[in-house]
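[Q] Does anyone have a clean structure-token version of this?
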Amino acid sequence: MTYCASKFAVVGFTEALAQELRGSGVQVYGLCPGRVATDMQQQYSGRKIGMPPERVAEAILQLAGRCPPVASGRCMPLPG
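[A] Here you go.
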């Protein structure tokens, strides 16, 4: 339950911050990746499961680019 609440908090913060900054020229995006194959994840599960971290980095570059795939205040899902 705590994990779910913290995920929703990030989405809510993204929406609220975008609303607060509307008209200022600042855009706000969230990124919601699925499971990411990291060394830390491997420590807990014994193996790397999920998308490579490079896929997350590519999504961040998309959000920072000229034509982000989602509107300001939205979170971009990245299924893994």
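[Q] Thanks! Anything notable?
[A] Residues 58 and 64 are 10 Å apart (CA to CA).
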